Amino acid sequence: MPDDVQIIDVCGARFNVANSATDLGFWTRVASGAWEPETFRLIERLASPGAPFVDIGAWIGPTTLFAASRGSIVHAHECDPVALTRLRRNIAVNPDLGPRITVSEAAVGEANGRMRLWSAALGNSETSLFARHERDGAIVDCATSIEVEVVDAAELFCRHGYAADAAALIKIDIEGAEFRVVPRLAPLIAGSAAVWYVSFHELNINPTDVPARVQRIAEMLRTLITFAPLRWYDASLKELDRAAVLDAVICGDWPAHGSLVFASRDLAP
Question: What CATH code is assigned to 5-112+152-263?
Answer without folding.
Answer: 3.40.50.150
